[in-house]
Amino acid sequence: MDNEKVFRMGFARIYPLLLNKAVKKGRTPEEVRTVIRWLTGYSGEDIDRLLGSDISYGDFFRNAPAMNPDREKIRGTVCGVRVEAVEDPLMREIRRLDLLVDELARGKAMEKILRS
User: Which long-range CB contacts under 8 A does 43-47 form with residues at least 24 apart?
Assistant: First the structure.
């Protein structure tokens, strides 16, 4: 899938997919929100507001209030692609969130997911 198509997709369309990936493996919606808040700096209220808007997934990341500097510690593979090797900075952030939710779904401890 081409990057621009992903960037234009609605955040409200992507969020339930992220949520479902973790919840069906026994994790909670609040844990998914914790991961999103940790990565982007959005508050829970911000996320609720954005879910009711037509913000694109790309703009969700572009407008993030405080991307966590520890996100640089996120290493791993999503769909066979090493996250740290993704050249497009915006796509790298998207892949980082995918990887964090994957780790959550695999049962990894929250402290390790949040690189504490």
Answer: 47/15
CA distance 46 to 115: 23
CB count in 10 Å sphere of residue 89: 8
Cα(70)–Cα(48) distance, rounded to whole angstroms? Answer: 24
Task: Supply the DSSP symbol for 9.
Answer: S
For 9-41, write each residue's pLDDT tens digit. Answer: 999 999 999 999 999 999 999 999 999 999 999
Residues 6+ apart with CB under 8 A from 30: none
Cα 77 to Cα 60: distance, rounded to the nearest angstrom: 22
Tell me the whole-structure pTM to 2 decimals.
Answer: 0.94
SS3 state at 43? coil
| Residue 72, CA distances (Å) to 6, 15, 84, 99, 109 in order | 22, 22, 8, 13, 19
